[in-house]
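ESCALATION

Customer reports they have been waiting on this structure for their group meeting. Please prioritize. Original submission:
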Amino acid sequence: VSNGRGSVSETKPAKSHLNFVYDPKTFFDGYDWSDRAEGQPFFAQVQMGEPHRPFDKSTRARPDAPIPPYLPDHPVTRADWADYLATIEELDRKVGVLLDRIVSEGLRSNTLIILFGDHGRPHVRCKQWLYDGGLHTPLIISWPGKVKADSVESGLVSLLDLMPTTLAAAGVDAPELPGVDLLADDWRGHEMLLAARDRCGDAMDRIRSVRTKDFKYIRNFHPELPYMQHSGYKKLSYPVWTVAKLLHKQGSWDSLFMADRRPEEELYDLSADPHEMRNLAFDPAYQTKLAQLRGDMDRWIKTT
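Update from on-call: job pushed to the front of the queue and completed.
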């Protein structure tokens, strides 16, 4: 078991925030799979920082890049978004280098590769929030002879599924886990996914959400707090954070995200409103759906 950044010259483990006490210097067998005995099977965790902030600087303008409607379409926003896209391109390059190495070492045909992100986009109203901009992460699985190339699955997936998936691939009997094996013949996706936000840095909070294929229900346990409450991390790292506050103060741009208070409940029809801009929690036509998802959340909270 290794934990590094994909280089044979690693001298220290990559980031490893685990929810138990351990010694990072001895918990992993090495920093790279090259540390193993010849021919020994391996599990390698390879970490790449992109597209975390700070972003790489974009070398070209991207005037046609779509800006989400919950962000002000401002030159600073476009410059920040261009840098974000440039950083993703750098990630793609690094992934390519890693894949080339796997091929050159003759490991491609019998190696399960899972590419995933640990959170959503590092932008205002995305990372650290329970909208899809914060919860939707990339996931690509490649396993020659086991996973059909270029196939796309549309079922709901959780990162909690990765542990049972990798254990099953290794032929290990898994304990009872909240996730499922994504490569099982009977996998059809989750009916719903549940998520939580609590304190993020110096921003205190408590929010829970339920997401189905077509709907998102969010419960704000602190409706007295503004969405844009002080966050040292966001203020220092997100230029659009300051732009949005300034434009709102000037009266030249507005968004529900700039409100002084939050509704206790939010409900979004994701098929009609993928950017989650129209809160339907108070719409009489959606009270049955609201009650259903409210009950699902209550049962989850009681269970966990």
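Sent to customer with the following note: The chain is about 25% helix and 10% strand.
Escalation resolved.
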